[in-house]
Amino acid sequence: MHLESPKKTISKSPEEVFNFLTDVQNYRKLMPESISKFEILSEKRFLFALKGMPEIVLELKNTVPYNKVVLGAASDKLPFTLTANIEELAENTSEAQFEFEGEFNAMMSMMIKGPITKFIQTLSENLQNI
Fold it and tell me: Which of 12, 72, 89, 123 is deepest in the core (most CB within 10 A)?
């Protein structure tokens, strides 16, 4: 399953957006209002839960300085990645988009497509306001 958030323009340089996204503590600021739990587990790993959803542990998997930040599920039960793509538009202006990529059976895909789409849209909108 591949989902993308809308691209959002951010009044920050790609370096500032990248540095913000590589600090896992900052994801608390991007979470939807429906968050019920957020906990830092290490400098590369955090746990969060949204109301009515199971807890998810994300960890920083890969980075490409100033262009890409890849988070992945720490559990193999639900393998997926959440990638932030960052592009420079002008000096001190960037464009960012979140991509969700995961392999799920058809039933699971139907159940999570709506909530995941809404989740990455919220991350994207909140990133615009950093």
Answer: 123
E strand spans, the chain: 2-4, 8-10, 35-42, 45-50, 56-64, 68-73, 80-90, 93-102
Phi, psi values for residue 58, rounded to 5°: -110, 145
Please state, in angstroms and as integers, the Cα–Cα distance from residue 28 to each residue in 16, 37, 91, following that order. Answer: 17, 10, 27
Instruction: Give the tens place of pLDDT for each residue, 98-127.
Output: 999 999 899 989 988 999 999 999 999 999
pTM above 0.85, yes or no: yes
Query: How far apart, in whole angstroms, are the C-alpha atoms of residue 66 and residue 10?
Result: 13
pLDDT in tens, 86-104: 999 999 999 999 999 999 8
